[in-house]
Amino acid sequence: MKPRVISLFSGCGGLDLGFIKAGFEIVFANDIDKEACLSYANNINHHILCKDIYSIRADEIPDADILIGGFPCLGFTIANGKNRNLNSSYNKLYLEYARILALKQPKYFLVENVAGIQSGKIFKEHFYEKILPSFEKCGYTLKFAILNASDYNVPQNRKRVIIIGRRNDIKNEVNFPKKQTKIPKTLKDAIGDLPLEYSENIPNHTGSRHKININGYVGNRILSWDKPAPTITGRGSRGGGAVIHPHPHLHRRLSVRECARIQSFPDDFIFYGSNGAAYAQIGNAVPPLMSYYLAREFKKVLERIP
Predict the structure, then answer these.
(1) Rounded distance, CA 69 to CA 53, Å?
(2) Is 73 marked active-site?
(3) Against a cut of 0.85, is the pTM above it?
(4) Catalytic residue (choose from 12, 37, 73, 138)
(5) Distance in angstroms (rounded) separating the CA atoms of residues 3 and 227
């Protein structure tokens, strides 16, 4: 019998894909974004509940071994620069994760979020004094680390805080995965074989018409073929615009498929909705390959628990 997973803030399913590949069964998934839910339903499973998390009751969620999810990070992300906002309504969604954690009491849980959630004085205080204690009060022992996706064969520098929780009556500890590579995969490894122009003949190899203006800001920096890509972001409007990185040839911006490759999504994963919606889904996702290495650590431990 496969270990069972509850997925919150599932988005299009990047985190879930990694757990499925590692041998888990997703028994419940939820997100409020209709287009992300459509992508999830058509690629992973139609069981995703497209509903506001505030209205979800505990009896709607099956029991499971693990709870996973990354609550929205718009207020925490460093990519927002001076616009980081501790009081953003998005920053309170960790309380809904904690509510369901307390009600369902899985053996373990996993939270993924931007590194900015614990950088800077007021954000660090909030992380240690509010976010972590809210999970500890549910009856869990916590550990966290900052991992870079490029250490897990993802062709992208993407640093994220990973929080792992173990229910206090469970003795088996889950470790963070060891680095999988000494030489990171490059942008050329990821997208070097795709056509230089947008093409309807390749699923999702279409994209933004927003002008390129190389000025050093996010979305307007020159990318190198021989290095990992910078972080694929999901912030900004659904129109995509300036947050979509330029192609290294500087003749256009990266396509939806190129961003998906950089995030380690397989080519048969099709994104639904407008190009802007697809960019946002990809940028908000956990790279499935990084998720897979995290999931393997949980699998090792669960196989030792009667």
Answers:
(1) 12
(2) yes
(3) yes
(4) 73
(5) 37
